[in-house]
Automatic annotation (TrEMBL):
Keywords: Oxidoreductase. Signal peptide: none annotated. It comes from the Bacteria. Gene3D superfamilies: NADP-dependent oxidoreductase domain. Residues 15-304 form the NADP-dependent oxidoreductase domain. SUPFAM superfamilies: NAD(P)-linked oxidoreductase. GO terms for molecular function: oxidoreductase activity. InterPro entries: Aldo-Keto_reductase, NAD(P)_OxRdtase_dom_sf, NADP_OxRdtase_dom. This is Aldo/keto reductase.
Amino acid sequence: MPKRQLGAHGPMVSAIGFGCMSFAGFFGEADDETSLETLAAVEAAGIDFWDTANLYGMGRSERIVGQYLKESGAEVTLATKVGIIPGPPRAFDNEEDYIRSELESSLKKLNRDKVELYYIHRRQQELPVETVAETMGKLIEEGLIDAWGLSEVAPSTIRRAHSVVPVTAVQNEYSLWTRQPELGVIQTCEELDIAFIPFSPVARGALGVADLDPSTFDDSDFRKVNPRFMGQNWLENMDYIRAFRAYAETKGVSTPALALAWVLHQGDHLIPIPGTRTKEHLADWAHAGEIGLSEDDLWEIEQILPAGWAAGDRYSDQQMVGVERYC
């Protein structure tokens, strides 16, 4: 597994990380034993940068990760997040007392005395991000976290925060069907030596090895009310996806591996964090870091999936709450 540096002063980590959101059932029912087996496969694949959050299953994902780390003794660079209070209605808290309380809880679940990276999952808009940066700086000084980051934020927020306490990573959605970060976030991170961490880099499973059928999604599935997976939007999106899958076949690679390789080729400071519930799906893309893409390949992909091709918004109105819009 190739390595990339996590920010200007962070550790070298696997070029492909792993997102643990699906262990909490966001994409359909999850099984804890299967999740533990998946983490074993993740470790075996050389993926040593893992990402979770206190929100995922209200601690379920963190507990699974913590159990695996305790039982296996695996050494990984670990990230978790704080700041979202689930609703309805969804709310946000970036105050110091709340952050400290949630970090203490997360560390217990993770069986850790610190985490390498701690994100503000969503900004509390009425609280200056400079104040939040000061809080995270205190946690760094106290040895409770090694570094901090932000999620789903605008370039202006990144600059303001970074001017107070250097930001190590920014995590926003980015893939072949969600390309808004190209309008400022990717460039800002590169300029400031911040790692950019694309989540959902294989389009929430849409760019998988086989067609999805949204009619079979569980009621708890995050995608059930996601506009891109609904009605006419999904039918139009499938035309593009099938064309991309056909191109991947001509290259002798899987659709998700090619989608992930494309993300990796957008900059050396990008460290995508795909996720899955099973080791079988992991095998579909774990080798993506070894796929080389020529300028001709990148041009061909752009013709098949041009910027803005996806029909429907990437979030429903309810899912969009808390996301910073800047374009």
